[in-house]
Amino acid sequence: MEILEFAGKTHDESRQGEAYNPIVKDTTAYQKHFYIESYGCAMNFADSEVVASILNAEGFGATRNQEEADLVLINTCSIREKAEQTVRKRLTEFRSLKKKRPGMLVGVLGCMAERLKSKWLEEEKLVDLVVGPDAYRSLPSLIEEAETGQKAVNVLLSRDETYGDIAPIRLDSNGVCAFVSIMRGCNNMCSFCVVPFTRGRERSRDAHSILEEVTQLFAAGYREVTLLGQNVDSYYWIDEQNDDTVTFAKLLEKVAQVSPLLRVRFSTSHPKDITDEVLYTMARYDNICKYIHLPVQSGSNRILQLMNRTYTREWYIGRVNRIREILPGCGLSTDMISGFCTETEEDHQDTYSLMEYCKYDLAYMYYYSERPGTLAERRYEDDVPEEVKKRRLQEIIALHRIHSLESMQRDVNRSFQVLIEGNSKKSDEHWQGRTDHNKVVIFPKEQYELKKGDYVMVNIDSCTAGTLLGKVDSSRPVLR
Ligand code: SAM
Ligand code: SF4
Ligand code: F3S
User: For position 138, what pLDDT does the model report?
Assistant: First the structure.
C-alpha cells in the first residue's frame, strides 16, 4: 500500500481503468457497432457488460451514439408496470431511428424479454431479437438469423448458466467501482415478485472466477466491487479442487483479502438468511463496507406472511439488533412496498413504527404493482385503491426523509475516509466520493494532488438531504 503525503499541487484526472474498458475508447477499430440501454437492477447492468463482451468477440464495438449503431439493444426490467411502460416508450422512439436506417436491428434483452417471450414479435413489429437473461451466449447466432430477415428468439432459462468464464466489458464505468455478479436467479417465492419467473432458479458462480475477476479489476485500478445477487446470503459453491464449500461469508473474506485497498460491498441480503458469520466477517475486515441493504417490504406480520417473505417483524428487528451489536454504526437501507393486497391502515402503521425503530439511512419505496403470473396475482385481489397506495407511499417517504436527514446531520463535524470516484456532477472544481457507509461526499479539489481511486480523509462541515459536504483533512495521509 502506497501512502502519500499531500504534495500541494493540482492534478489532472486519473486514467485508471482504461485497459479494462477497451471497446468504448476505440470504436473506430470495429466495423459494426452496438448501442445498449439498461433498465432495472444492478444485475441487469452487470449483464449488459457480459453482453458487451460477447458482442465484442463478434466484432461489434460499443457506441454511445444510437444513430451510428447497427444493433440497438434494450436490457429490460419487469419489476413494476411502470418499468415496463418506460421500455415500451423507449422502443417507440427507436422506431423512427429504424425508419431512417432499415438495416439496423433492434433487440429486447432481460426480464421483459423473458416475461413476454415471442409475444414481442406480434406486439412490437420493430423488434428483431428477443433474448432472455440466460441466453446471451446465443446472441451471435441470433444476430445472424435476424440479419437474414427472420425474427430470432431465445428465452430458455438455465439451471447452471452463470457467465462465470466471460470477462465483462465495463460500460460507462468511472474506472473505480464495478459490479461483480456472484449468482443468478432466485429460489424465493415472494408473492409480489416477478424475478423468479424472469431469472429462473438460483445458482452460484464458481468462486475462482469471481476472485479472478476481482483481482483483474483491482490490477486495472478499480477500488470498489459490489458483489451482486438477489439473495447473496444463500451463495453456496462446492470447490471440488480443494475439497471445500464456499459460503457467502467465506467468499466475502476471500474477496476482502484481494487487497486492503479494495472496498467490498454486496447486495442484496435477505433478512431470513443473513448470518452472524457474515456480520463477524464484515467486522474483521476494514475494507468490507459497513453498510447493509436489508429489504423489509412491510412492518406488518400479516402482510409479510401474505408476501411469503418467511420472516416476521420480530425476526427482522432481531437481525437489525444483531447488526448494530456486531457492527456499531453500520449503515442500513431497505426496500418497502405500500398498499400490498389487503393492507389496512393498521398494517401501514406497523410499517411506520418499524421505520421509527430502524431509522434507515436510505430506503427505496414503491407502491404495489401487480405483476402477471406472480403468486399474489393468482391468489389475492389487488384491492387497495391506487390513491390509498400512493398516499401511504407519500407518508412513508416523508417519514424516511426525516430519518435520512437525521442520519446525514449526525455525520456533520466528523471525519470520514472517502474513496474518490470522480468529478462532482455539478463542478469540475470538486471531487465526489463515498464513505464506507455509502454516503456521497462532495469536497473542493483545492491545491491537492489527488486522483480517482485515492482514499482521502474529509472533514464534514455541512450536509443536504442526500450529500455530505466537506474539506480535505490535509493532516491525514492519502492512501493509494
Ligand atoms: N431480491 C431483493 C429482495 O429480496 O429484496 C430485491 C428484489 S427486487 C429487484 C427490488 C425491490 O423491488 C423489492 O425489494 C421490492 O421492494 C420491489 N418490488 C418487487 N416487486 C414489486 C411489485 N410487484 N410492486 C412494487 N414493488 C416491487
Ligand atoms: Fe423477488 Fe423475493 Fe427473490 Fe427478492 S428474494 S428477487 S423480492 S422473489
Ligand atoms: Fe428488474 Fe429483472 Fe432486476 S425484473 S429489478 S431487471 S431482476
Answer: 97
Could you tell me which of 388, 341, 337 has the C-alpha nearest to residue 80? 337
CA distance 90 to 447: 44
Measured distance CA(38)–CA(222) in Å, rounded: 22
Alpha-carbon radius of gyration of the chain: 23
C-alpha cell at 312: 416476521
- The predicted pLDDT at position 226 comes to 98
pTM: 0.93
Q: Does residue 55 contact residue 34 with C-beta atoms inside 8 Å?
A: yes
CA-to-CA separations, 298 to 17, 21, 239, 330, 383, in angstroms, rounded: 41, 41, 37, 21, 17
Spatial CB neighbours of 183, under 8 Å, sequence gap ≥ 6: 162, 202, 203, 204, 205, 228, 229, 230, 231, 232, 234, 235
- Whether 311 lines ligand 1, by a CB cut-off of 6 Å, is no
pLDDT tens digits, residue range 43-102?
A: 999 999 999 999 999 999 999 999 899 999 999 999 999 999 999 999 988 888 888 888
Quote the ligand 2 centre to 46 CA distance (angstroms): 18
Q: Which residues have C-beta atoms less than 6 Å from ligand 3?
A: 40-41, 43-44, 77-79, 110-111, 194-195, 198-199
| pLDDT per position as a tens digit, 100-138 | 888 899 999 999 999 998 788 777 678 999 999 999 999
d(CA 211, CA 190): 31
C-alpha cell read off for 134: 440466460
Q: How many CB atoms lie within 10 A of CB 36?
A: 25
| Top mutation candidate among 39, 74, 78, 157 for ligand 3, by most atoms within 8 Å of CB | 78
451: cell is: 486522483
359 φ, ψ (degrees, to nearest 5): 45, 70
CA 47/CA 284 separation, integer angstroms: 31
CA gap 187, 202 in Å, rounded: 5
For the record, the C-alpha cell of 281 comes out as 466477517
Alpha-carbon gap, residue 19 to 21, rounded angstroms: 6
Cell numbers that stand for 98 in this block:
429504424
Torsion of CA 381, 385, 388, 393, to 10 degrees: 60
Ligand 2 in reach of 190 Cβ (< 6 A): yes
**Is the Cβ–Cβ distance between 422 and 431 less than 8 Å?**
yes
Annotate 190-227 with b (16+ C-beta within 10 A) or e (fewer): bbbbbbbbbbbebbbbbbebbbebbeebbebbbbbbbb
